[in-house]
Every structure is written in C-alpha cells, then in structure tokens.
Design a protein that fits this description.
Layout: H1 3-8, H2 19-44, H3 50-71, H4 78-99, H5 105-125
Protein name: Four-helix bundle copper-binding protein
Pfam family, one: Csp
InterPro entries: Csp_YhjQ, YHJQ-like
Amino acid sequence: MSIAKMIAAHPQVGGDLNEPLALAVRHAMFCAAICTSCADACAAEEMDMRQCIRTCLDCADVCDATFKLATRRTGSNELLLQEMLQLCVTACDICAEECARHDHEHCRLCAEMCRECARDCRAALETF
C-alpha cells in the first residue's frame, strides 16, 4: 500500500497529487518509527544517552504530527501545514545532529533518516 495512492484517491485531491508533499509524508512516517526505535536502542546502551533519547522522541512526535496533518486533504489549512513542515525540518536537523555525535549503528541510521525527512520536507515547502 502506498500513502501517495491513498492521498491521490481523496475526492478533493482528484488525482492531482503533490508528489513532493506525498514523499515528505512517507518519510515523516518512517522517521517517526525510526526515531522511536533509536530512542529505545539508546535506552539499552550502557552510556548516558538521555539527551539523544529526548531528541529522538521529540523528533518522532513532530514527524508523527506532521504526517497526520499532511494526509488530511479535506478543506485547507496551508499555513499550518507549512509551519508543521518547517517544524519537522527543524526537529529532524536537531535529531540528526545529536545522533551523529554517537558511534552507534542505530544512531547513524536515525541521523540518515532524519536528513532524508528534512530534505523532503524542504522540497514540499517549495511547492506552496
């Protein structure tokens, strides 16, 4: 199943899909899951990973809210959507920077996903 297909099937979208926004939604969904998983892995590390855990969980929550808001196509709330996309960029940038400080594979993967999500949210913002 594709989230892009689901969004395109919405009666108010009428098949005229904003591809960059659909990609940002997809990656925000993935990023929320990966950040949550990274936070859990950080909790299992023997070193103090409190800041990384906090940053990952904050990013996961922002990504979760962003993809939920962006999949709603009934009516319009473009200003709020733009603000959420920008907040997602900020949260992902912060999380990628924090995870890059640690020499753990889960943090490396999380930082990579955060960078992808931030890039796609920036691209989606350019469509408004």
